[in-house]
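anyone else get weird line breaks when pasting these?? whatever heres mine. first is seq + tokens for prot A
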Amino acid sequence: MQNEPEITLQLVKDHGLTGEEYRRILNLIGRTPNFTELGIFSVMWSEHCSYKSSRPFLKNLPTEGPNVLQGPGENAGVIDIGDGFAVVFKIESHNHPSFIEPHQGAATGVGGIMRDIFTMGARPIALLDSLRFGEMEDPRTRFLLNGVVDGISSYGNCTGVPTVGGEVYFDSCYNGNILVNAFCLGLAKSDGIFLAKAGGVGNRILYVGSKTGRDGIHGASLLASSEFDETTEEKRPTVQVGDPFTEKLLIEACLEIMEFNWVVGVQDMGAAGLTSSSFEMAHRSEAGVRMDLSKVPLREEGMTPYEILLSESQERMLFVIEPGHEGEAIAILEKWGLDAAIIGEGIDGTGVRIEFKGKEVVNLPTFPVVDGALDLKRETKRPKYLDKIDQVNLAELPEPSRGDKAFLKLLACPNIASKEWVYEQYDHMVRLDTLVLPGSDAAVLRIKGTKKAVAISVDCNSRFCYLDPYNGAAIAVAEGCRNVTCSGAKPIGLTNCLNFGNPEKPEIMWQFEQAVKGIGDTCLFFDIPVVSGNVSLYNETKGEAIFPTPTVAVVGLIEDQTKIMTQGFKKPGHRIGLIGFTLEELGGSEYLKVLFDKTEGKAPALDRKNEKQVQEFCLELIQKGLIQSAHDCSEGGLAIAVAESCFATPEETLGAKLELESTLRGDTLLFGESQSRIVISFPEELTDQIKNLALSYNVDFSLIGITGGSKFTVSINGQEYIKQEIESIKNIWKTSLGRYAGQTT
């Protein structure tokens, strides 16, 4: 092309490529790339698209299982749930765009993850979000929180896909780099899964959806391969702009087209846009593709091939259809008011050839572009900070004579307080499939036409991961499984979103290596396949990295909808029991952070065998109808878990009276975050039956209190430790986050 810039080492660097990578490009293609081809390599070899730093570690995750229909490598993972149905799911990050432009960044993150799902032939039925913001004292946090929540709600609500749960955390480590991880689950016929393939000479390449503009060029692909600095605001133009109404039309049109057997393959245009979709589809099929960019629907004049190929404009798909059906396909799309055009075809060979206005502008083999990036063997090194924060000396912490002050502070802190202000902005009942509403351990959705339901939960305690990446990541898996178990589901699959700092730093790669190993080992032990995922690196600003945050989303299957369990106490006079045991652990706890401003100590221990027995015991209690509630004990410890069970029944707030016997410190007993614990409630007459069943599972089980009354009281070894009015503490817990978010100063 005329007037294209000369390829220089500085231009190569400006495209995020190193000198070594450029030399590899020259060797792979045997010539100097032109400007457009350089742009193609820059986005396809970015961390976001190539996984060049993470691939060597991800290969060790367990990805197979008897019910896995599709594992990693496609747009989303697929698991067969019986009765002719499959669930399709994935979680993905949109961190950097959301920090730069919170509304559009979060909105397009939701749109992108939904396209990953319906691209596979599945109707999206549920969204979850894992959000992390900086400390509340940071002046930008409130702006980011409101913008992200508004972006998620506006996009999800407009498309008619319910947002049914998630998590929201605050910590100073996210001041300069928030996390927005979006999860979507879809439902498909088990024999109706579509893959991103383009094989077949003469097959037509069909462009579908919104017109292509200049928004998003070098967006998700290169934003995800750099740290933030003083120039962050200048990157605002790289954030994509979403249109949820077009996305809704796209969902319906695509699912209609997919009813026909002449559809060969489908891929959404996400990160790297038309470039990634065309090259990846061709590569997976070991086929060739020819395209004419002059036929791409454009919304801006004068766009160059470089801009057309690298644009990350939203709500666009690429279909491959058999020849002779072009008219049928375009007629369906036009009926839904969508742009559509045949822009190319399958050809002999294994390359991609692209023309523009009668001139060839790209001629590249697919392998170098898609799989040619080097697997970077990054150096790993255990961070020195771990030597300083490894120990918490309980003797140095003042032991309170009562726990009221700590209890009230924890209820009000943003990581524990109700997230109602967030989820009340989301439409979580659209389609009328939501059986368990947001705020519980796991969301539950019915599978229409069957007795089945699915439970979904997203989890990660990044503070634990900071203190011990291996154990923290293992705990994330265990807690995700525990949450869906408490709903009555058997965990069947997992997806992860691995959020870390700069991989060029050995300490960061050590964290990454350890976290992936923790996830892999724990999934292997629980026999849970990792069927999809995402890696987000360079999450740091001015050299300060976020805590390692390997977010996991777990999907569980409930065979009988009548066996669904929730966390709220149901009736006064029921006994309260604790499955599992409490250890002398305060490291990484919310109590230690809120009361003493410390993030140190050892993360809680995780005994995988005990965890598995606890979950299996709880699941049998639910299936046999022996309990009325089940709630995972996590942030804030036992006292917070019991209080949340008091608050969780909207019809009637029930008080609770706990009577505990222990040799532990009071604050450790009530606010420590020992793993593998579940709070349950049940009629008193079932006590002996539950005790006997606990013995058969070899798990610890203790009676700790009774439901009812207007107060929340706790005594330890006969001494009153906490006494509060239940309605008063419920109000603190329920309103704290909303009051903060609604402040104007």
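and prot B, same format (seq, then tokens)
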Amino acid sequence: MKPMRVVIPIFLILFSIILLNLSSNDILTYAQENKTNNVVIKDSNLIVEEYISGLNLPVMIDFIDDDDGVHMLVIEKDEGTVKIIKDGILISEPILQLEVSHASEEGLLGILVQNIDVFVHHTTRSVDDDTTSNWFTKYTWDGEKLIEPVELLSFHKGTGNHNGGVMIEDENGIVFGAIGDLGYGKVLDMQQQKNFLSAENNYIGSILSLNAPSEVYAVGIRNTYGLDIDPVTGILWDTENGHRDFDEVNLVQKKFNSGWSKIQGPIKDNQETPIINGYEYSDPEFSWERPVAVTSIHFIQSPLFPEYENSVLIGSFGGGILYKFELNENRDGFRFDDNNLKDLVLNKEDSPNEIIFGTGFAGITDIKEGPDGSIYIVTIGDGKIFRISPALNGNIGGSDCQNFSDSKNFSGCIFSGEDFTGKNFSNKNFNFADFSKSNLTDVNFQGANLVNSNFYNAKLSNVNFSGANLDSTIFKEAILTNTNFNKASLVSADFQKTILSKVNFEHSDLERSLFDNAELEATKFMHANLMRAGFESSNLTFVDLENTNLVKANFDNAILKNANFNEAKIWKTKLNNADLENSSFVETDVFKSEFRKSNLKNADFQLSKLTNVDFTDADLTSVNLLYVYPVDSIFDDTILKNAKINTCLEHDIFSRILNKILRSIEGLNSEFFEKLIISVC
């Protein structure tokens, strides 16, 4: 990519010079006193906007998936609070409040979400000897608060500086946390650490697993506020702050040794390679000779920014600069056009123009991609979160909205009301494109990028979306006939009030998608992911949901006559007041789901596992429960007329289950369990 010229405001140069002369205790104060709203991104096809303000020293963010959507969690350093942001609105009441020490670099410093588990890192100060303790703790999200703390790891006797605290999850679900040298200026080995650590880990100044704390992934780290994993290679990278020179970006393979305190920046001729118990030293992939206080690192993977798929963003506290680096072909380092940077060092006399992507931020502390694909940037100095996204001007990233023969990029193009009958748009880029009220009969979108596109009130007949990315796409009030979504990604797609006829969603990812009040008769969802999907008040007669993931999906008030749920995973799913007559649940795993007041006449649960299922007030007339194991399920006021129950459980176990059922219907009119067939094999 050809670098673009940029003029660095003089205040940024002065900022960096002043920063070098500040103590660590003064840096935060300086950032607060030198706030700026002059945020600039050098790509004119992108917009940067203020998303949230009014935070008190925000440090990091992450996103949590809840029943009502995906929300942002943000931590405030000195307050020790975790707050939640819903639909762009900051909720003032914290979901977690911790007592923290917050002098200098101390405070609430790290957060990472893993499903409903939330990992946090914070510091406390001893009143006895005025030393700092670092704590990694795991909490559980209950939908309102973070509860049930579990201490994972703690480090004691620190000086208040170099606490680290950033965390990352790898592709195997392992959570890694970084801890600095705790201000001691060296790496403490196992023999030296006894007075400093409460847990038996090999090193401080390291990156280590929080799932298995005995595993130390990397050592020799002075202090880091940035960890990320390359989504292509799966390799970990970090940023590291130097002492008086050489901030670093490192490729962190297992058993990596960053060299502190022997080496900062690239190794020099007169320096010996540091050896620490088999951990191998390697030079940084890039260094700043003059420190800029590097913080977060982020590999861009959002489909909203296809031109940056090989780019890495790095934030800095000093100067409020957002850097962008281009990965080399092997993705094990960076490539540069500027000859002065090809030595992998920004020396004092070198120009940073090629790597500067944004300016004017008041101390960047975190960079994350959101569920909408936008990039969010946390700035501690002014208590804000910024959002970077494509400019919706009908011509994003140099797209040519009329050249269908040669162009592949139609980002942000407006096609509302157009007739595209028979067009081939396979593998083209249509993110943020507007197809509302268009005729798309016989159109081929196979493998296309349609993230955040709009098909509102469009006509889609015989359309092929197989393998396409349609995350966050709008189909509201559209008409879809013979449409193929096989193996497509439709995360958070909106199909509310749509009419679907003979539509195929086999093997598609529809997590958090919405089908409320839609017509879906005979739609095929086999092997699809419908976790947290919404089907409230929809017509799903004859729908095929075999082998689907329906965890936390909502079918309240839906019509599901003759629906096929065979071998589906129905965990914590809502099917209250639903019409499920003649539906099939053969060999289905049903766990903590609700069928209250539902019509289940002639439903077939043969060979299914029912655990903690609520059938209160449900009509199970003539239901087939042969070879079913209704463990701890609720049958209060349930109609079981002509129901069939057969089990091969041990007699005593069966007796307890049967007694539970009979107790639940005790006192009811006999007609409710008339002709109830119960047999033991």
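btw re prot B: The domain at 10-390 is CATH 2.120.10.30 (Neuraminidase). Helices lie at 10-20, 24-33, 651-664.
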